[in-house]
C-alpha cells in the first residue's frame, strides 16, 4: 500500500529535520520504501503487516520512536463519554460487530480531511478485505443524538441522501445507481435485511459497509469533533481498525473518548480499548532466533525504538507491552523480529554459512540435460514455451480430444489450460516463425500435465521431449534417423522399436509409435495437412514427442 | 599502399558475370546464368556490397498467384464458360436445369455461373412455361479472367498490361491473390572497375581444391593455391543450440549444487492446503482471490488431504494457534477452501512438501520452476514465471545465518554489493529483503528470505529453525541480457533465439 503525504508535514510530525537520504534510510530500516518524490509530495510504500503505518500520523509515530525522539508506547488517554450504541437483534449473520469512538478537537483542513479519508480507504481495502471484513465511517459528532442504533432494516424502507448526492434514494436504488452501491453492495445485497446505523432521532448515519448519509456522514472543515464507527464480521479486525483510526486522529490533537456498545445478547463492550497487550519473552529465544548476543538492556532499548514498552524480568525474561494499534503481533517471533529491526538490520553481521551438505540435481534433470545435448548435436534449436495454453491449440487444431486441465478464471482464452502435450506448442511456434530462415529444426524439453483422478492434486505431471522439423520439403526417414540418434545416445540400442500407428494429427501411413521394451513412450510422423491448415502453417512438418521417465532412467 | 581487393572463387564468378551486364541485373537472373542457387548468389552479393564493390538494391514488387478456387477453375474451366459451352452444345438455347446438368457444375457454382454469363452479356434469360430459359448471344465466349488464370497456372507471376481488366475481376472474385516478392538488383560500382579488373586478372592460377589424388601423386608440389578471402565476416548459420534462458537456469543450478543444495520438485496444480494453508496464509487473504490466483475447475476442482494429522494441526494453527504459542487468525478454518485446486502461485509449497517428507537435518534444498498468477500478459506481467528458491534446515540457525546464506548465493551469481532491509511474508518471521546494487538500475530487490514461522514448521513436527530464501532469477536474467519486456523470457521469435546468447 502506498501512503502519499507532504514531506514537510511528515517531518513536522516527526519533530526533526532529516535530509531525504536520511529519511529514505530510516524508512528502509523500518520495512518501508520511498516510491516517488515530487516536490514536497512523497509516496511511501508500506508493507501489509504494518496497517498502523497507513497514515502519515502512523508513519510519524514509528519514525519518532525509531529515531529516539519519543520511544516506547505512544500515550493516548481514553476518557469515557458515557454515550451508548445499541445493537439490535438480527445482524448476527449479516454484519454482527461494531466498534465506535469519539475524537474531539481534531485538526481539520481540506488536506487533513483528504488524509483521513485515504487512511480510511487504505485500511478498509487491506485490513478490512475491501470492506467485507471491516468498514469505517466518520461522522459529525455534534449533529448526532445518542444513543446511536445499529439495526437491520428492509431495503425498500431505507431512504436517505447518500454522500455526495442531493436527493433521497431508497436502498435498492443506491445499490443500482450509486457508485459505492455498485462496488460494495454485493457484500450485503443477498440478505433480506440490510444493516443500518441511525441516531435516536431517526436520522440515518450510514448503510454500512456501503455509504454514509450526506448530512451526518460528511466531515467538513468545521467538524472538529468526529464520531468514528467500524462495522464488520470479525471482532478483532473491527477493533483493530478502530484503534488505528482513532490513534491517527489523536496524533492530530484529538482527545479520544470511548463509547459503550450494548449487544442484544447482553454483552457490553467499551470501545476503543487502547490497553496494550502484554507478552513475556525469553531472552534466550531472542538470541537464538536473531543470532545476536544481546543483553536485556539492549533488547529493551531496541523494543522501545519500535514503540513497545519493555522491561527485564530477572535475567532471562522480558515483559513486553504491545501498542493496541499493532495488528501483526500473533506470536513471540513477531516481537523478536521487531527486536532485530529496532537493533537495526544494517548493524547485523551476516554469518558465514556452515551447514555442510552435498548437493545434487534430480536424476530427471540430468536426463533432460542429456536429451537437450543430443538434440542440439542433431542440429535442433532449443525453445522454451509457456505451460499455459488454449484448448483449441491442444485439441481442436490437433484433431485430438485429450483430457485437459482448465482454469475457471483465465485472463484470456490463449492461457486458460495447461499443456497436455508439447507437440501443439511447437506447432504454434512454427506457425509464428514462417518469416524465419528455413530449414527450421526446434525442440523443447518440459513438463506436461494430464488429469488423473486418483492423485492428490488430480494430475499426472510428466516430462516430455518434442522435436520438430519444417522446410519446403521434409523427410520422415531423416526424422526417424534423428530419433534413432537420440535413443541410441540414451543407451537404448536394442530396446527401442517403431510401430506403425493411426493418429488423426498425422498423415495416414506416415506415423509411428516409439516403443521402449515394448512399452509405448512416444510417437512421430508427418503432420496432417488439416492440422497444418488449422495452425496456419504453410510448409510441411515432421515431428516427434517422447515422454521421459520420472525416475530419470528407463529401468530394465 | 594501394587498395587491393581479395576475392573468393564464388565472388570471382559472380563478378565476372556481373561485368558482362550493362547496368542492373536481378540476383535471380544472375543465379540462372551461373547455374547457382539464388540464396548463395545473394549472400555473395551481400558480401561484395558490404565491401562496396557492388551496389545492391532491394526492389519489392507485387506478384500474383492463384487461390485454391482459382487453381480449380484454371484446371477445369470457369463455371460461366462451362455453362456457356453447354448452352452452345445444346443448340444455343436451353433450360437452366438442362444446361447446368450438361455443364456438370456443382449447385454451389450454379449461381456464380449464371451471374457472370449475364454480366458478360453472353446470355438472355427468359421464362417459358415456368422454366428459366437461357439463350446464347455468342458462339464463342471470351473470358479475360480465364486467360489470367491460365497465364498464372503456367507458372507466370506477373500479369501483362493486356490482361489488367481480367486481373481486376479475378482479384475481386478472389481467384487470384497478391504477394509481395523481394528482388535484389546488383550493379558493379563503376569507380571500383579498375580494382575489380585487376583482382580478377590476378591469382586465377593455382590449385583450387586439394584432392586425395594430388596428395597421393604429389602433384601439388611446386604449385601455388588460389587464395580464399579469409577476412570476410562468416555468414549466419543455424545449427542447434540452447535457449539463453535455459542456459542461465543451468548456470544457477550449477552454482546451487556447488553450494550443497539438492534439487527438488512439486506439481503445478496444488491444493490450497499446500499452496497457502500450510504457509499460514489466512483463508481470506486477498492473494487467494480469483483476480490473483488461478483456480482449477476442469475436469476436477478439489483434491485430497493425504495426512489428516497434518491437516488437523494446520487447522488448529489457523483457528487459535494450536500448540505453537500463536493466537492464530481467530477465524474458522474451511476444509472446502483447503482442498480447492489452484495453479501454484509460488514454489514455496515445494519446500513444504520437502520438509514433510524428510527428517534428520541438516538439509539444503532448492527448486527453480514455473509458477502461475492470474495476470494478463503484457510487457511487465506474465501469467507464469520461474522462481528460484531454497531452504536450509539445521540445528541452531539464526537470522544472521540467513543473511549469510543470502549474501553467499548473491556473491556466487555475481552480485558485488548488497544490503538488507526487514521484509514481510506471511510464512516467515523475521523476514528480510536483500537488495543488490545494479550499475544502471540502482538498488534492486533480488533476494527475499526469512525464517519459517512456528505456525508453519510445528505442524510438520519441526522445532528447528528452517531458513528460506529466494532469488529474483527472471529479473537477474533480464538485467544481464538487457531485456526490458518480460515476454522475451519465453520469446517465440526463432530469429531472435538463433542470434541471442547467454554468457557468464
What keyword list fits this structure?
heterodimer, A: 556 residues, alpha+beta, Phenylalanyl-tRNA Synthetase, Chain B, domain 1, Phenylalanyl-tRNA Synthetase, Chain B, domain 3, 15 helices, 28 strands, 28% helix, B: 504 residues, Arc Repressor Mutant, subunit A, BirA Bifunctional Protein, domain 2, 3 domains, seven-stranded mixed beta sheet, three-stranded antiparallel beta sheet, 20 helices
Q: Look at the helices and sheets of chain B and give the structural class.
A: alpha+beta
Low-confidence stretches of chain A: none
Strand content of chain B: 15-25%
Q: What oligomeric state best describes the polypeptide chains here? A: heterodimer
* CA radius of gyration of chain A: 33 Å
On the 0 to 100 scale, the average pLDDT of chain A is 95
Please give the share of residues in helix of chain A.
Answer: 25-40%
In the CATH hierarchy, what is the class of the largest domain in chain B?
Alpha Beta
What is the end-to-end distance of chain B?
A: 42 Å
Q: How many separate domains make up the residues of chain A?
A: 4
CATH class of the largest domain in chain A: Alpha Beta
What's the CATH superfamily of the largest domain in chain A, by name? Phenylalanyl-trna Synthetase, Chain B, domain 3
| Secondary-structure-derived class of chain A | alpha+beta
Fraction of helical residues of chain B: 25-40%
What is the architecture of the largest domain in chain B at the second tier of CATH? 2-Layer Sandwich
Radius of gyration of chain B, whole Å: 38 Å
Number of helices of chain A: 15
Largest interface, C-beta closer than 8 angstroms, per-chain residues:
A-B, 98 and 99 residues
Ranges of chain B with pLDDT <50 over ≥5 residues?
Answer: none
Number of E-type strands of chain B? 16
